[in-house]
Amino acid sequence: MTLAVRPYSEGDEFAINDAFNRIFGCSRSIEEWVWKFSIDGAREATVAAWDGEKLAAHNGGIPAAFIVGGRRVLSLQGVDTFSLAALDKRRDWKGAWLDVMDFFAEVIAPQAQAPLLYGFTGPNSIGHMVNRCRWDAAEPRRIPLLTRTVGTGGKKSLASRLYIARPFGDHEPALDLLWHRVQPRYSAAVVRDADGLRRRFAGHPLAPYHRWLVTPRFSQDPVASVVFRTDGGQCRWADLLWDNKHPGALDLVHHLSGRLAQQTGCGQEAMWLDGDTEAEERLRGAGFEGGPDPSGVVRVTRFLDPTLSAEAFAPGRVYTTMADADLV
Is residue 219's pLDDT more than 80? Predict the structure, then answer.
């Protein structure tokens, strides 16, 4: 039987989520799948190969606005990418994964008018993504992981006392002003304005997100925002935006992280941080340490528009936090 490669249809999520759990050894609920693919355009950008009613391969797509060298474009992040050929011992499905990835790039992305594809993949799949799928617009990038043992952050700095932090909800208009202020610092980055952060963090059925906006003590102008996720014994910095003209604001953020970690019984703080050397240097001075994520995960990219700037994706230039990883 010839495999049928097609976009998502209603009801596919049950087979897709079951296969995801089998492949990756997870126990993700269907509610989590529904939340993840509730972003506008995500289900239309999701592709699978079917052998009758049996799922053979899959690639999800999450749309997001992206800044590349000052230019705003639509991107599609490839997520939950897998093939069941090996697990189900189906040699006749061996080519299904490549068929799915080609359909994603050659049919779905042009329909969505998305000239940029990117994703994060493990070390065993890098060669396939680069050599077979041509996600080779930029050198695969190992993402830095910084960690700190809870309780080693030291005292609150004097500079941090010039700032205050308040929780923010699903819609926070001040994030538009903050993004406008910090965006020129980044060579390339997912857009993190009010709508972008709402789409990324609102409504998760399980994740305990803690969202804070930082302003000077005597001003309403936002100078930093941070989103923490506390589970599994870790306080993870899911996202960070920081105006580097306000070092005390970042001091307050990492003080918040340490305090939240203690309150929630976490033993470690952790973050991905790439593309902001000033923030990294300051956080290392506050006790964070580390290097490339030991899992071996890398970012891979494919340009469908040759005028996109490859230089903007040079190693260490793309602003990256755990918010860019769809599983945090």
Answer: yes
